[in-house]
Amino acid sequence: MKSLAELAAIREKMKDKVILREGTGEIRVVVGMATCGIAAGARPVLNAFVEGVNKEGLGDKVTVSQTGCIGVCQFEPVVEIYESGKDKVTYVKMTAEKAAEVIEKHLKGGKVIGEYTITNAIS
Fold first, then answer.
1. Which of 12, 69, 92, 117 would you call most buried, defined as having the most Cβ atoms within 10 angstroms of its Cβ?
2. Cβ contacts of residue 32 below 8 Å, gap of 6+?
3. Residues 81-108: what's their mean pLDDT?
4. CA separation (Å) from 5 to 8, 9, 12, 18, 54?
5. Helix, coil or strand: residue 89
6. 27-122 has which fold?
7. For residues 116 and 98, is the Cβ–Cβ distance under 8 A?
8. Strand, helix or coil at 75?
């Protein structure tokens, strides 16, 4: 068993990641983590969003969380972004590299990356 000091150190280290997942930011990033999403690579995508949002100092305005099945398994990993007053944006076939680009261009810059959206994937 870990000592109390070791457990406290682990808690402190993970604190930012937990807060990001439970935050109340004005932008919500939701990663589909059902079986199909995980099998398609959603876990590294979720981790990339959590770490990238934290690294960029966006934790006060962006909440990163996970959900179950989004319902479009053929497009997994799927990420939905909700912003108050705007239409939901659904990014499909995501990777950790694409997540970094979404953080930079969409979350920081406010510009949706059309080529990664579901609208582009089904047209």
1. 92
2. 42, 66, 67, 68, 69, 70, 76, 77, 78, 79, 80
3. 96
4. 5, 6, 11, 19, 25
5. strand
6. Glutaredoxin (3.40.30)
7. yes
8. helix
pLDDT in the model for residue 16: 59
What whole-number distance in Å separates Cα of residue 103 and Cα of residue 35? 25
pLDDT digits (tens, 9 = 90+) for 42-91: 999 999 999 999 999 998 899 999 999 999 999 999 999 999 889 999 99
**How far is residue 58's CA from residue 39's CA, in Å, rounded to a whole number?**
28
Cα–chain-centroid distance for residue 97?
Answer: 12
Ordered by start, the domain boundaries in the chain are 27-122
pLDDT in tens, 14-40: 665 554 555 556 899 999 999 999 999
Q: Are 12 and 45 in contact (CB under 8 A)?
A: no
